[in-house]
Amino acid sequence: MSDTLSYTTSPLPSSVPSVSGDSNATLCQDWEQSHHLLFHLANLSLGLGFLIPTTVTLHMIFLRLLLMTGCSLFIAWATLYRCTLDVMVWNVVFLLVNFMHFFFLLYKRRPIKIDTELKSLYKRMFEPLHVREALFQRLTGQFCTIQTLKKGQVYAAEDKTFVDERLSILLKGKMKVSYRGHFLHNIYTNAFIDSPEFRSTQMNRGERFQVTITAEENCKFLCWSRERLTYFLESESFLNEVFRYLIGKDITNKLYTLNDPTLSDKAAKKMDRHPSLCSQLSMMQMRNSMASTSDTDDVLNQILRGGSTGSSLQKTPLTKASTTMKPIEEGMEDDVFEPESPSTSQNISRTPREDM
Fold this sequence. Notes:
Elements: H1 37-50, H2 59-82, H3 85-108, H4 119-126, H5 133-141, E1 144-149, E2 154-156, E3 166-172, E4 175-179, E5 182-187, E6 191-192, H6 195-200, E7 212-215, E8 219-225, H7 226-235, H8 237-258, H9 265-270, H10 277-291, H11 296-304, H12 309-315, H13 342-355
Antiparallel strand pairs: 1-8, 2-7, 3-6, 3-8, 4-5, 4-7
């Protein structure tokens, strides 16, 4: 075939508008009519949602609710008036996402039902410290039990019951704390039963109670397993600080009642303050006196009598110095790093010879 075929290709239509000499050719000449009212209401709903300040308590719930309203209006506008499938599908996806967030926020703010036996405990001890009801329910609903004691039954026996087994708060009734048959103080409702032992044995395990705790009335108390409670508080730093504060406050109140034998039951129940300077001094004198004498029963009897206990003990010439324990001095911490004087070293060296 000698004849050559010649093909003529027509130019493809260009998607880019041709620029003519007139500058208005690339601009919109005729604006379309405004969209339906649903379109404007949808945008207004989105705008109001973004304008909600974060200082509003339920701002996230209001935001999700307005976003869901806007998406629903967009779906109605795209389906009924524009017939655009892609706009409808995208807004359906946005609506589902916001609905899940909205449902989760409502679930977090659901009303928490606290047991009737624990309501007074929560109102008195935990609610003033801004512990939420959900966190309190987690604390009391998984690894603690409510136990009872009849009048005369023993919660802890001196030198017999181990300390590191539990931690309890008295919910109802009254308990008595005694040492070698001598009354020390009472434990009332909404107070820790064994807070001093819990604090003193955080590092040393396997110790036993040094006091006897007996129920003077029919009692009901909330009891935690110490090991599980410690493990839970390690994961909840805020609640851990709350427990440290409550236990320290409870120990302070017990020290105050221990040093004020004239305190009545009603005053002890309402007591919520730190010990005075006089009570702190009497506690130090009591510890020094018991540490510097060998007969602790006589010292305890004198302490329990009240009055000028510390002064009488210090002025008694019959107290014998203990060979194992020394009195606690207020200025001991300041003298730790001071060099010893020659006079003190000579006195120390002469002491064993005089005893012999």
